[in-house]
Write a structure and sequence with these properties.
seven-stranded mixed beta sheet, Quinone Oxidoreductase, Chain A, domain 1, alpha/beta, single chain, binds NADP nicotinamide-adenine-dinucleotide phosphate, Rossmann fold, 321 residues
Length: 321
């Protein structure tokens, strides 16, 4: 059986991505076959598109010279079409969301899939996978964020940041969120207790101290970040914008993990069903409200990738499929 999918046969910018007819994925015993209705864009998809960083290609096993699989994309929401013989918790017709490489396609065959709450759309549920798990695992597991603690989220207006603000509130923290001028209102509406405009205020020089800094946007050295931390405060390095200057800071932060007695944590978010279920519960209870900047059709995917690559999305970009 054939399906429509966004594919790239070589590494490159958004211009190498095109919609083609390809073979549908096979249903394996422990997987469910999902008819994808919506997907969302993440930095990970961009790395898959560009095959970047080059040095990491051998370890990511995506193909050194060209992609091993033409399919890419990760987050999805859709309807279960069929279930493998070992699947007991889902059935055809269930509305679900989850993550699996190859999600920019009409069908995906996946393990990490949970039921979509009825009060959210496919588009909203499709924003949860990578960004939601990154925010949840960063704050709760790596940051060990406790109720009543003060957390600062640097980079609060993008895919990960908008969810991190809400998850930190749900965990009972006092949240200071850092974003640019045009995103102040959105960030307040997400529930942040304090909002700092990074074009006017450098949070590392403000004199305030936090139990946890979740750094999504990057751009500060460890010695600067230490000024914003309580003496035993923790730093979770979520991401950064990837400039040469930033890479220098990241290298410094990585070295500081050796010297900081566990106060600095790097991590890569992992898909698993219990954490997806936690996100589903938060959606259902209204603790999480996805922020969607814009929705594109599959035929407009190149535009969506270009916009995402510019790095100033408010919340998430969604692809309907
Ligand atoms: N560790 C992991 O497992 C993991 C997983 C997913 C993502 N990440 C990383 O997390 C980062 C964010 O991902 P994302 O999906 O949220 O990206 P995104 O949606 O593109 O978000 C970028 C946001 O960062 C803001 N920003 C840019 N410069 C800033 C600054 N100097 N201070 C504060 N905010 C700034 C932008 O707001 P303005 O337009 O207002 O500037 C934009 O809203 C990326 O580096 C990504 O690689 C890590």
């Amino acid at each position: 059986m054939m399906m429509k999918a966004l594919v790239r046969h070589e590494y490159g910018g958004p211009g190498v991505a095109r919609v083609e007819e390809v073979e549908q994925p096979e249903l394996e015993d422990e997987r469910v076959l999902v008819r994808v209705r919506a997907s969302s864009l993440n930095k990970a998809d961009f790395h898959q598109l560009r095959g970047f960083p080059r040095l990491l290609r051998p370890v990511t096993r995506g193909g050194v010279r060209r992609p091993k699989s033409a399919l890419f994309g990760t987050d999805f929401a859709g309807v279960v079409e069929a279930v493998g013989k070992d699947v007991t918790d889902l059935a055809p017709g269930d509305e679900v969301f989850g993550g699996r490489t190859g999600a920019f396609a009409e069908y995906v065959s996946a393990i990490n899939v949970v039921r979509k709450p009825a009060n959210v759309t496919f588009e909203e549920a499709a924003t949860m996978g990578i960004a939601g798990l990154t925010a949840l695992q960063g704050l709760r597991d790596k940051g060990d964020l406790q109720s009543g603690e003060r957390v600062l989220i640097n980079g609060a207006s993008g895919g990960v940041g908008t969810l991190a603000v809400q998850i930190a509130k749900a965990l009972g923290a006092h949240v200071t969120a850092v974003c640019s001028t045009r995103n102040i209102e959105q960030t307040r509406a997400l529930g942040a207790d304090r909002v700092l405009d990074y074009t006017r205020t450098d949070f590392t020089r403000e004199g305030e101290r936090y139990d946890l800094v979740a750094d999504v946007a990057g751009g500060h050295s460890w010695s600067a970040l230490k000024r914003a931390l309580e003496p035993e405060g923790r730093l979770v390095v979520v991401g950064g914008h990837g400039s040469r200057h930033q890479l220098g800071h990241l290298a410094g932060l990585w070295l500081s993990t050796r010297l900081s007695k566990g106060r600095v944590k790097f991590y890569v978010a992992q898909f698993n069903k219990p954490d997806l279920q936690t996100l589903a519960d938060m959606l259902e209870s209204g603790q999480l409200k996805p922020a969607i900047d814009r929705t594109y059709g599959l035929a407009e995917a190149q535009d969506a990738l270009r916009t995402f690559g510019e790095g100033h999305v408010r919340g998430k970009l969604v692809l309907t499929i």
